[in-house]
Amino acid sequence: MSSAAENGDAAPGKQSEEKTYKKTASSAIKGAIQLGIGYTVGNLTSKPDRDVLMQDFYVVESVFLPSEGSNLTPAHHYPDFRFKTYAPLAFRYFRELFGIKPDDYLYSICSEPLIELSNPGASGSLFFVTSDDEFIIKTVQHKEAEFLQKLLPGYYMNLNQNPRTLLPKFYGLYCMQSGGINIRIVVMNNVLPRSMRMHFTYDLKGSTYKRRASRKEREKSNPTFKDLDFLQDMHEGLYFDTETYNALMKTLQRDCRVLESFKIMDYSLLLGIHILDHSLKEKEEENSQNVPDAKRSGMQKVLYSTAMESIQGPGKSGDGIITENLDTMGGIPAKSHKGEKLLLFMGIIDILQSYRLMKKLEHSWKALVYDGDTVSVHRPSFYADRFLKFMNSRVFKKIQ
């Protein structure tokens, strides 16, 4: 089985070499995603609105899309494939909860080609983003898809009581089957909008053992750094006004308790930092070089689930630090220890790791070899406590 990790990121000079995932060309995966979701979401509009029932979480709908087309499906130039939609009514309800209308969902995913991101994680998954920046589409392993299905009822009971969350917002789970291969994909909120430049990006777990970006990662144009890098670059932490700080901490605490109750660990906080003082200079440069981006950010709406909304709910905006006339793209205003004005974008990622036997084994042997408490794989309650302690003592601070 071939993975994106084995094929590596296409070198800049070799853009024509297409990535494959499980022996399938990424163009075929992108095409199947658009055709499949186009069909299934269109099909859903004919189903009446009603409350979600327990059994809705276990429904799987399946449609066959032959390349020559059928009376239900359009012709296409990819190999024949079957497209499965998991819990369609439940996910429709979740999308509504976050204010995503079926037409907008379809338009975002199906109207323009999906953009493939160079692999941000070590998982070997493929990542795509919709051209309007709204959604991330990620391939997941069978175990992760299965775990998400099990998680759905409890996860969404929790969302219902509390839509303010930094947990991933899952909008759909699908599977494309072709030539005996299953490719499972999940559609999620995009935490870091591409139309706003991230001057720094961190993946934070609250662990210091081996948590430094690799040399290979550092050579990328937009590297993702880790905990030790953060402590080195931002040793004083990031500062918020009291109200924003309290809202953020409350959200993180609640989210971690939810993850702990599902026995989930090894998640990260993905944190994007945009330095406002730098961005004015860059705007002029970008506009002269980068026409498509300038054009796009002009029409860019604030996203469905912004970082600010995730901690405060809609309708409030932290104006303690930043002037109002600025389009903050839903970022959370903060300051660096040097007094620079920042916008922060963040979300908890990688929650589909259940603390199963493998993890327990991994922890036991790592603990023998190293000091157990600094290792990133840990019991869920310990993991949550360490994660929170790191966030509220090292990363986020209140302006005195």
UniProtKB/TrEMBL annotation:
Recorded GO CC terms: cytoplasm; plasma membrane
SMART domains, A to Z: PIPKc
InterPro entries: PInositol-4-P-4/5-kinase_C_sf (IPR027483), PInositol-4-P-4/5-kinase_core (IPR002498), PInositol-4-P-5-kinase_N (IPR027484), PInositol-4/5-P-5/4-kinase (IPR023610)
GO molecular function: 1-phosphatidylinositol-4-phosphate 5-kinase activity; ATP binding
Presence of the UniProt keyword DNA-binding in the record: no
Cell compartments where the protein resides: Cytoplasm
Region of interest: Disordered: 1-21
BP terms from Gene Ontology: phosphatidylinositol phosphate biosynthetic process
One Pfam family it belongs to: PIP5K
Segments passing through the bilayer: none
Keyword annotations from UniProtKB, A to Z: ATP-binding, Cytoplasm, Kinase, Nucleotide-binding, Transferase
Limits of the PIPK domain: 25-395
The organism's place on the tree of life at top rank: Eukaryota
Family matches, as PANTHER family: PHOSPHATIDYLINOSITOL 4-PHOSPHATE 5-KINASE TYPE-1 BETA, PHOSPHATIDYLINOSITOL-4-PHOSPHATE 5-KINASE
Protein name: Phosphatidylinositol 4-phosphate 5-kinase type-1 beta
Organism of origin: Leptonychotes weddellii
